[in-house]
């Protein structure tokens, strides 16, 4: 039996009466609180859907916040009066299942050329931070020494994650509730390695263990023995719930470990070959689509030379590689010309690298399978650098998001677009020191400065409301 079509709906929220339409409430979406009131056709179900005999639905919640959220569903615009705190509004929006609508009204879809500095947050610990990582919902986390500070999308800090003097090497969000942390091993213990933590409480949910029973050196011994290890660069594959991390064992057991995100069980281990570097990797990046490979980059100054490779775990082989060993950079020993970061750009079929001068270089990935090193095609950006060098310059970083290329250099971030990667905008503020790391996610860009762990939040303004 079908429901009753009734476009006008009345709510009694905390004693205040609101009247709206089913059309307006439908803007909240099927998975919202309001979607549960109606049937699939957004009609009141035959049992009344919770409506009283007076044709009102009573909700024992904050009426002031409800008024703001109802106006958001009507107009798409978010206007918060002075008598309503943002924290209360976000709590109510979460109850009604329309938090995404609030976020979309506060900042727009990510576009590097439209970003504006939203705010800056001062960290708790002085000195250089290790890393900053964006969360999927607009929050972030900052690693400093052995502590990871976690912030939700409202930039309220959760209890910090303290690894008891084990230095954090990398960190990543599985989702808004779970964080993976890699850390250095402490000698004489099995501490270190990698663990899954609650982002809200800091609770350690489980540790990722590794054994080397299938390695060439341990084929007939130590079968199933748990080994201590240092976990480094981290990469999460959202397509099949795998976690990758560079690993260094005590007995020269260097390589890339693979674990299941759900169970925490080790799935594979790719051992580095003599003369190459995997276990000391600075960066891991998963390439999906036609590639289905893992980018592994070990860069100067962690190593005297740079090693970049693509690993195919389906055939357990290195299918593409590049190194500056024996090249002109090795002979000239000019540090500022060495590769400092690398990022794969799947749509462009290339890998981008950057040196100390923010010169961008590109290597063609279409040579995959040849096992021959590609040549870097450099594109000088030094003409864009103006002003004085900061007192504490940081190494440049690269990221790709939404078809745009981002490169940090000293105290600003450059945005490059188009097939020729033309410089289109720069993100910079007046203080904070050099940018030691940045991350993009949840439609935000987070930039961590070396001075006092200050980090900036850059957002694109929401689109204009068309009346």
From TrEMBL:
InterPro entries assigned to the protein according to its UniProt record, in alphabetical order: Beta_prop_At2g24240, BTB/POZ_dom, Quinoprotein_ADH-like_sf, SKP1/BTB/POZ_sf, T1-type_BTB
BTB domain residues: 7-82
SUPFAM superfamilies according to UniProt: POZ domain (SSF54695), Quinoprotein alcohol dehydrogenase-like (SSF50998)
Gene Ontology process terms (BP): protein homooligomerization
One Pfam family linked to the record: Beta_prop_At2g24240
Recorded superkingdom: Eukaryota
Protein name: BTB domain-containing protein
Source species of the chain: Trapa natans (Water chestnut)
């Amino acid at each position: 039996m079908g429901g009753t079509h009734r476009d006008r709906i009345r709510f009694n929220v905390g004693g205040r009466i609101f009247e709206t339409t089913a059309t307006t409430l439908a803007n909240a979406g099927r998975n919202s609180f309001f979607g549960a009131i109606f049937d699939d056709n957004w009609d009141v179900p035959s049992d009344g859907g919770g409506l009283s005999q007076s044709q009102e639905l009573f909700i024992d919640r904050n009426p002031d916040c409800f008024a703001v959220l109802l106006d958001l569903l009507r107009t798409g615009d978010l206007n918060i009066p002075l008598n309503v705190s943002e924290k209360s509004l976000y709590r109510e929006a979460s109850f009604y299942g329309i938090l995404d609508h609030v976020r979309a009204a506060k900042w727009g879809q990510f576009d590097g050329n439209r970003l504006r500095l939203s705010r800056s947050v001062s960290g708790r610990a002085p000195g250089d931070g290790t890393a900053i990582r964006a969360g999927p919902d607009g929050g972030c986390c900052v690693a400093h020494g052995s502590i990871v500070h976690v912030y939700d999308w409202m930039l309220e800090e959760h209890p910090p994650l303290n690894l008891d003097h084990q230095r954090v090497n990398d960190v990543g969000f599985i989702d808004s509730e779970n964080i993976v942390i890699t850390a250095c091993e402490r000698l004489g213990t099995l501490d270190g390695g990698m663990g899954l933590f609650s982002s809200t409480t800091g609770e350690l949910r489980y540790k990722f263990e590794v054994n080397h029973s299938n390695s060439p050196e341990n084929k007939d011994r130590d079968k199933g023995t748990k080994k201590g290890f240092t976990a480094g660069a981290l990469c999460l594959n959202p397509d099949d719930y795998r976690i990758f991390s560079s690993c260094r064992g005590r007995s020269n057991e260097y390589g890339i470990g693979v674990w299941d995100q759900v169970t925490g069980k080790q799935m594979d281990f790719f051992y580095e070959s003599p003369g190459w570097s995997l276990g000391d990797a600075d960066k891991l990046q998963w390439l999906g689509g036609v590639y289905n490979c893992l980018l592994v980059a070990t860069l100067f100054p962690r190593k005297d030379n740079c090693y970049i490779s693509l690993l195919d775990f389906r055939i357990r082989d290195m299918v593409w590689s590049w190194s500056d060993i024996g090249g002109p950079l090795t002979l000239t020993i000019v540090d500022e010309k060495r590769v400092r970061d690398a990022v794969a750009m799947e749509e462009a079929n290339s890998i981008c690298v950057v040196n100390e001068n923010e010169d961008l270089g590109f290597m063609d990935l279409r040579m995959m399978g040849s096992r021959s090193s590609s040549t870097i095609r450099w594109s000088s950006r030094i003409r864009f650098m103006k002003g004085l060098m900061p007192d504490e310059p940081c190494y440049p970083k690269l990221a790709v998001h939404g078809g745009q290329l981002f490169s940090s250099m000293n105290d600003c971030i450059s945005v490059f677009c188009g097939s020729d990667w033309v410089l289109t905008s720069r993100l910079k503020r007046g203080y904070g020191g050099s940018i030691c790391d940045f991350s993009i996610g949840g439609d935000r860009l987070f930039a961590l400065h070396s001075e006092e762990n200050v980090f900036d939040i850059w957002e694109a303004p929401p689109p204009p409301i068309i009346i």
